[in-house]
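USER: Please consider what follows.
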Amino acid sequence: MKKINFYLVIVLVTAISAITACNKDIEGRTDNIPALSPANIDLNAGTWKPVLLTSPSEFAVAAPGATTSPDYIAQINEIKSWQANLTSEEKELVKYWSAGAVLRWNEILRELVAKHNLPPYQNDDGTYPIPSASNPLAYPQFPFANPPYAARAYAYVSAAQYDALIAAWYYKTLYNRAAPYKVDSTLNVLIPKSDLPSYPSEDAVLAGVAAEMMKLLFPGDQEFIQQKAEEEKRARIIAGANVRSDIEAGEALGKAVAQKFVARARGDRAGAAVGNATVWKQLADDCTAKGEIAWQSLETPKRPPMLPLFGKVKPFLFDSLTVIALRPGPPPSTSGADMKAEVEEVYYQTSHPSREKMRIIDFWADGAGTYTPPGHWMSIAAEDFIRKNFSEVRWARNMALLAMTEMDAAIVCWDTKFTYFNPRPCQMNPNIKTLTGVPNFPSYISGHSTFSGAAARILGYIIPERAAAYEAMAEEAAMSRFYAGIHYNKSDCGVGLVVGRNVGNYAIQRAKSDGAE
């Protein structure tokens, strides 16, 4: 009988608890928000600048049938037949999706990230298995949704949603077909009425594009993802918001746009980011050749570094040469006085914890079983966007700006980490007892700090009155890693914030030129 590894049991129980708490948090905090009813429907959004589409009309959408045709009248009657026998579950479905589909799909995506944010356990021989996209349900399940993978997932889904909605708005204004409740005033309308044309359905566009992207990124969860898409489409019909042809045209458009992003994802070099044993050894050897102490895994047995070639993934906001240009200079030498001072500073912090510091460490931990630091910032943004009552297309635009910023921040951060291969504080001084888990990748620069600096910069631009609050959050997130003893303060956290802000500036440049302002 195989011996039970009690460390594994503890890890799994902790991860399951974290996932349960995370999912409850995702579903619970926005359950009772009102239905989306924006003051500005952004009718000109069909002219905004897309991310990948060559133009909003790149994928054709056929003209809709007349609202006086027998076919359209039959579709109106379909709505009435649904509404004649609505169940309480169907009413809840309408309420759930009417809060905003960009919001809901972002929550669903965060839920999937949390579910899959679990590192594989080692084989009997001490090696570690690598998840395979071609066999996603085999152990270890694909993906391991670690922070870089999660950042990339948020970016692809959000950017694809944004492009799909730009195209949808283009065709809405082109064809200008009124919503069903404006055609037939006897319909019972379960969502706020709007002057936005209904063809193609924006919800169906989002269902189509989000489902296709998420199936690529989380191939073992296709049934769950498709179920959510079907629920969203059904909710729009029974709410009286769209007829069947609105839905069909929207879903087809969303799927078409998704394929353009799928093609990009398949060629963005992320599939090779895990590297191999030769690459892992070369990184350490290169660092040692410079006379520095090379980072090493502090796990037992030693785990291969997390996605060491993620810095070579194709970014959204700039090109790969800019990634190198954004890379900061080297950290203090591992044999120098500056490094010694930084190590001593970390040792002092971990030797003098306080309740407030522990609160900060816990709040920003975002470890295994959570939706990661980029997802934490998506959650912060979502709560603030709810208060701003944006239109769906503006929601998509703002989420895309944030998500692309976080992905590109991950790329620059990981490029820096594996260029310098700098050891963690507790490697330099084994007497340092960290107050949270030690991530399995080099120290310089701090990922939390880079993600947070980037997020705070673009969110502060989107909601200027919250800019100071976002910057304070970013500073706190960065300090949480210093307090926990897993990062140096000045070099890892301070430089990480600067690098993140520099990445965020590229998102601001895009925002200023995308036509949405």
Q: What stands out?
A: The first helix runs from residue 6 to 28.
